[in-house]
Design brief:
By secondary structure, this protein is α+β, with helices and mostly antiparallel strands. It is built from 15 helices and 13 strands. A hairpin with a 5-residue loop joins β4 and β5.
């Protein structure tokens, strides 16, 4: 038995040793490749030196470099530096997407070594490599594993560990075959378990694009777009909704990836009662960011304005899928269910609101009404009385309780509450309420 156990341990250790040798060979080959294809993105500092902004990597033989959009957006003039010290200025932009945090830059260095892009084989648990190119101790490779693969806002995202090294945005995430599985967006810093990369499938279709414009023109366009959006927001807040629409559309003509811009269009079209266009733009915003609860809430309001209550319910339900404790969604649902006379569903909403917001006194009145609607008069009166504890001089409270007693056929109790309501309504000059009380009172006579 001992001999069998010894042989088992020997087999395990031999396997682990073999794995380490395989990883060592793979790591050596990948690092050699990375030294040729990973670049540093920098701009000139005020002192005349270099200000490093992030990493990037070469994706085609014409010198196109992929990096983070945020990295490139930091300066009006940038260059790339290879690990051998060679420097090439960025000449143009072949593709950009703020939504993906991705930009492809054309450099003046054709014929450089490039990475192949392929994320198709990556799965949770796979070994991956990332790089720290600007550490004081030189270019280093980090080994880690894919910890999660998720879809978010229409994008495929990879979470991975990185042996404790701080990574710069824009660098490549390499699989065990030496191919780029993604571009690094965020580093967890001192944590190891939540580095984030965008799948290379979002890069590959654009690597052979021709330059759209020079880098300086790109920066001017983005600055112009930002001015449009700022003016559009000001126009909206000033009640100039048509101007806000025009300015936002100018912005989107330059930068079509911004969900907040489509949201602003949705709000502006809603204000001028163009509900069809409002819905269309909210839907565009959700294509970019399907997890944005404020857009779903806004969409529900537009559907209600068009009388599309079932669609509004769907929008509120999507909010609750994303944010189960959203009071706005629960309130919205409760009002629709009351309108549709779905009182059991409305009751569930009101009870949830009370659970989430126990200090909300108004919800006692809502619960009083809905319990009355489903015929539970005892609970209805109980909640109206709780509401009345905070509104003891409000004639409407006594009127409501009187009506519930009337519905439950307790005429003496109904008359008592209705007379109290009448007395307070007369004192306060509540003419319309007084008329309603006067209509009901004779019905309570036995």
């Amino acid at each position: 038995m001992k001999k069998v156990f010894f042989l088992f341990l020997l087999a395990v250790f031999s396997f682990l040793s073999l794995q380490e040798k395989v990883y060592a060979r793979v790591s050596s080959k990948i690092i050699q490749t990375a030294r040729q294809a990973v670049v540093s993105v920098f701009t000139a500092s005020p002192s005349g030196g270099k200000k490093y902004l992030g990493d990037g990597f070469i994706v085609n033989e014409k010198g196109v470099v992929a990096t983070s959009y945020k990295v490139a957006y930091q300066s009006s003039r940038i260059s790339i530096e290879l690990q051998d010290g060679s420097i090439y200025p960025v000449k143009g932009v072949t593709y950009y997407s703020p939504k993906k945090d991705l930009i492809l830059l054309k450099t003046s260095a054709p014929g450089l070594f490039r990475f192949e892009l392929d994320d198709s084989s990556l799965k949770v648990g796979d070994v991956v490599y990332s790089f720290s190119s600007l550490l004081e101790d030189g270019f280093q490779a980090n080994i880690g594993v894919v910890s999660a693969i998720e879809e978010e806002k229409g994008l495929k995202l990879l979470k991975f560990t990185a042996s404790g090294k701080i990574l710069l945005p824009g660098g490549p995430l390499i699989n065990a075959e030496g191919k780029v599985g993604g571009i690094i967006l965020e580093s967890a810093g001192s944590r190891q378990d939540f580095n984030l990369a965008l799948s290379s499938k979002h890069i590959k279709p654009y690597i052979n694009n021709e330059p759209k414009f020079s880098f300086s023109e790109f920066k001017k366009r983005m600055a112009k777009a930002d001015r449009y959006l700022k003016k559009a927001a000001h126009a909206y807040s000033s009640g100039q909704y048509r101007q806000a629409i025009d300015l936002t559309q100018e912005f989107l003509a330059i930068n079509p990836d911004r969900a907040d811009a489509y949201n602003l269009l949705g709000l502006s079209f809603y204000k001028i009662k163009n509900y069809r266009q409002s819905i269309k733009n909210y839907q565009e915003a959700l294509k970019i960011n399907p997890a944005d609860t404020s857009t779903h809430l806004n969409l529900a309001i537009v559907y209600l304005s068009r009388g599309q209550k079932e669609k509004a319910i769907d929008s509120y339900r999507k909010v609750l899928d994303l944010e189960p404790n959203s009071l706005q969604a629960w309130h919205g649902l409760s009002r629709i269910y009351v309108d549709l006379e779905k009182y059991e569903e409305a009751l569930a909403c009101y009870l949830r609101i009370l659970e989430l917001d126990p200090g909300n006194i108004e919800i006692y009145s809502d619960l009083g009404w809905v319990y009355a609607a489903i015929g539970d008069y005892q609970k209805s009166i109980s909640y109206f009385k709780k509401y009345g504890d905070h509104h003891s001089d409000d004639p409407e409270v006594y009127f409501k309780i009187g009506l519930v007693y009337y519905e439950s056929k307790d005429m003496p109790a109904a008359r008592k509450k209705l007379f109290k309501a009448k007395e307070l309504a007369q004192e306060q000059g509540r003419i319309q309420l007084l008329q309603n009380i006067t209509k009901v009172l004779p019905e309570t006579e036995e």
